[in-house]
Amino acid sequence: MKRTALITGITGQDGSYLAELLLCKGYDVHGMVRHAAIESPEHRLWRIRHLLPEIRIHGASLESYASLCKLLQHVQPDECYHLAAQSYVSYSFEDEFSTMQTNVRGTHDLLAALKQFAPGCKFYFAGSSEMFGKVESGPQNESTPFHPRSTYAISKIAGFDLCRYYREAHGIYICNGILFNHESPRRGLEFVTRKITNQAAKIKLGLAKEIRLGNLEARRDWGHAREYVEAMWMMLQQPKPDDYVIATGETHSVREFCEVAFSHVGLDYLDWVKVDPEFIRPADVECLIGDPSKAHRILGWSNEVYWTDLIKEMIEADQEEMKRAIHVGKAPEQVVRAAQGRALIQTGTTNFTLRPATVAGAYGKDSLKGKFEEA
Ligand code: G4F
Questions:
Q1: According to the model, what pLDDT value does residue 36 have?
Q2: Ligand 1 midpoint to CA 192 (Å)
Q3: Which residues are catalytic?
Q4: Which of 308, 347, 353 is nearest to 202 (CA)?
Q5: Ligand 1 contact, 180 CB (< 6 A)
Q6: Would you say 291 and 249 are in contact if contact means Cβ atoms under 8 Å apart?
Q7: Cα separation of 364 and 349, whole Å?
Q8: pLDDT of 117-160, one tens digit each?
Q9: Which three-class secondary structure state does DSSP give residue 29?
Q10: Would you say the CB of residue 188 lies under 6 angstroms from ligand 1?
Q11: What integer best gives the mean pLDDT of the chain?
């Protein structure tokens, strides 16, 4: 029988790849999105617009317990992937309260609703390598202690502990994924990898003169998001729920990332990268490197995309994007603006023009009637 999956955060990088994977596996895929996204599909749904005819989207919010209850009652999922979160670490220094509210309270409400309305549903929680924080040793595995450096990390640890509690006290099938950084051409521009590839592409085309970054010495274990969502699915297929580190086992600095990205377009990063204190965090995580051996052993998961190939894919996608924008006749400043923010979607990752009529006609609320369901 066809299995039903519910994804919170389906509009994000991971949500979009996961929806593709689950559709390929024959699932009936439902996604939870905020009402604001439904009101503004051209801006918020760009990563999943090619999937819209095949999935069902429900307006609900982690901030509304009632909407979560209605959603679970209505969808009755076999598997729920909880990816929605305030996931930008820097923002959590500016607004600690909303990060905690969304990530902790939202997760708690979802778990409580699950317990009441879909207790047989398997649940995946998106933990994070940020939870390790100020690490004393490496590589980090499932037994490494947490030492959070941001309220984002604290909120993820609280979510992680809530999940363990619901698993142990209430017998719900819940897996925590401790995912290290995972990137792709669908990564948001606020994260360092995409900021670098996007800006390097602009510089190459003469559309920007520099890139301002913070801590160049921070080291991360970067993998490809498309491979990491496979691990999420694999976790929920195991006979018993458990927690897993998902990582490549290699670490590289932001500086090395710049070096590879710029050299791919024939530039020397030293000529273009400027350090700006504005982007230095009050407390940063200096070095992350994961040990995915448990996932190798039990799930049979391993990464295949090497980090330099990931960078190549990202920068080539950014270059394509900008060339296409130029091709559809936009002024350079529009291209830059588009590439700087969410407006990037208007240039599209597939053929898509900027005319509002086209946007409304193709993706406006009216044309999506029937596909969106209120929770
Ligand atoms: O790309 P980042 O913003 O990712 P970060 O903070 O590691 O968090 C990401 O990965 C986590 C998994 O470990 C997720 F849980 C989380 O949701 C998110 O997806 O920053 C990476 C590093 C940091 O050390 C930061 O200080 O890059 C450094 N950095 C240097 N200059 C910068 C910049 N980061 C950003 N975003 N922007 C800069 O200009």
A1: 80
A2: 6
A3: 128, 130, 152
A4: 347
A5: yes
A6: yes
A7: 18
A8: 999 999 999 999 999 999 988 999 999 999 999 999 999 999 99
A9: strand
A10: no
A11: 89
Q: Distance between CA 64 and CA 84 in Å, rounded?
A: 14
Spatial neighbors of 82 by CB under 8 A, at least 6 apart, are 8, 9, 107, 110, 123, 124, 125, 126
Atom of ligand 1 nearest to the CA of 85: 17
- What's the token pair of residue 301? 């998961």
pLDDT, tens digit, for every residue of 279-298? 999 999 999 999 999 999 99
> What pLDDT shows up at residue 269?
98
Q: Ligand 1 centre and the CA of 215: distance in Å?
A: 10
The secondary structure of 197-252 as a DSSP string is HHHHHHHHTTS-S-EEES-TT-EE--EEHHHHHHHHHHHTTSSS--EEEE--S--E
Q: Is the CB of 109 under 6 A from ligand 1?
A: no
Residue 224: which of 299, 304, 151 has the closest Cα? 304
Claim: this prediction has a pTM higher than 0.85: yes
Q: Is the CB of 140 under 6 A from ligand 1?
A: no
Angle at 167 between CA 166 and CA 168, to 5 degrees: 95
Instruction: Return the H-helix or E-strand segment holding 32.
Output: strand 28-33
- pLDDT bin (cut points 50, 70, 90) of residue 176 is very high
Distance (angstroms) between ligand 1 centre and the Cα of 285 equals 9
